[in-house]
Amino acid sequence: MPPKKHRNPFRGVSDIVSEMHRMSDRMMGADPGPATSARGHTDAWSPATDILARGSDLVIRCELPGVPASDVDVHLSNGALTIEGHRDRGPEPDESFYVQERYWGQFRRVVSLPQGVHDEDVEAELDEGVLEIVVRNCAEASGPKPIRIKSKSKPPPARP
Questions:
Q1: Which of 24, 51, 107, 148 has its CA at a distance of 20 to 30 angstroms from the CA of residue 42?
Q2: How far apart are CA 59 and CA 115, in angstroms?
Q3: Residues near 95 by Cβ (< 8 Å), separated by ≥ 6?
Q4: Using an 8 Å Cβ cutoff, are 35 and 11 in contact?
Q5: The pTM is what?
Q6: Positive or negative CA dihedral for 62, 123, 76, 39?
Q7: 98 compared with 26, residue with greater pLDDT
Q8: How far apart are CA 94 and CA 130, in angstroms?
């Protein structure tokens, strides 16, 4: 018997604002290299993030190489899980770059969670540059419900 196919109850939970910001940066040719001033939340970079189900748990993984746990803050408020912090630029004042492609400065990701998630349901661990956040027992939540679209236009005439 083929394995039972589960539909993804978390389709669409990724942070839309972060993705729109990332797409806008790419279209405008934004350079992630050295900036003349510190970045704020409006121009922060967004770490690459995976969201997946592991059994009944939701798992969120963010790539944060070079960022110590002391520079990362994870908090839950009104159903939104926020991951924010900063990565230091790193070079000494006497170093000059020929190419600088790594993002540095402040970062922020916000992930909408299903209703009913509480602080005690969330655990976070940073290991080898990957932040893994596990939200216990929320992968069984019902996913988005399809909305039937009505059409006001007349159907095309039947073919002979």
A1: 51
A2: 16
A3: none
A4: no
A5: 0.63
A6: negative
A7: 98
A8: 30
pLDDT tens digit string along 76-123?
999 999 999 999 876 667 777 788 788 888 999 999 998 889 999 999
Q: Which residues contact 137 (CB under 8 A, 6 or more apart)?
A: 56, 57, 121
Report the pLDDT value the prediction gives residue 40, as an integer from 0 to 100: 52
The count of residues in the chain is: 160
Q: Which pair of structure tokens corresponds to residue 142?
A: 């019902």
Predicted confidence (pLDDT) per residue in 117-152, tens digit: 999 999 999 999 999 999 998 876 555 678 888 888
Sole residue written with tokens 């790193």: 90
Burial 119-146 (b: 16+ CB within 10 A, else e): eebbebebeeeebebbbeebbeeeeeee
